[in-house]
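Students often ask why we bother encoding 3D structure as a string. The short answer is that it lets us treat folding as translation between two languages. Here is a chain of 255 residues written in the first language.
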Amino acid sequence: MIRNIIHKKAILAPIIMLAAMWFGFLLQHFGFFSSCFGAIIPLLPEGLLGIITSPLLHGNIDHIIGNSIPIVFLLFLLYQFYPEVATKVFITGWISSGFLLWILPPIDIFSGEYLYTCTIGASGIVYVLAFFLFFGGVFRWNIKLLTISLLVVLYYGSLIWGMFPEELFYTMNEPSRISWQAHLSGAIIGSVMAFVFKKYGEKKKKYIWEFPNYYSEKDDKLWQEYKENNPDDFMELPYKKRDDIWDHLEELRKK
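And here it is in the second language, the structure alphabet:
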């Protein structure tokens, strides 16, 4: 019964992604990815490798745990409710958001200075999935998918603040280590793909009563069968003749 309710890939995809992230974190621990190797370094050729590898790398245990939970939850929703396009969205979102981050110049918004940054972590993919799931329901205007949109907003609505530099909200002694550019890239790509794939997958169901003049007695097979099997029910019934006051004239005179 569960197999008919939950898609197999909705279970497998989060597990595989989670295993890849923790395996990459383990390789970091043993020094396979040291310094900025494997990270996205904007506008520099050596940073292109990070488009593929950076989502699998994390700065510390808190960083990877913070990304693991939403990755599992959002990937499950993606493969469960958008199975036809889930793999395309995931892979395209992964590469496109990474490339968009790579071409965004890392400039300090206050000083205008160029910052040499090394970006790692799966938060960009988290934003891709969250924004795709939200706008996917909105663009399709399907009740079930809109419910998923509301669920994403309920749990991850605060993600929108991550698209802006942390310095806008706090006074900081040193530059923030959180890449708002990665979050912004993921949000843009996720929203664009929700629009691009809006015609794929489950769409809004339109019931017969939503159409004008939807009912036709001739098309109602049950009604037609009943009329054929019970002709007596449709014979003209004898009606009482309407009283005419002139018919009672003599009676009135006698009174």
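Translate back mentally: The chain is about 50% helix and 0% strand. Keep this in mind for the problem set.
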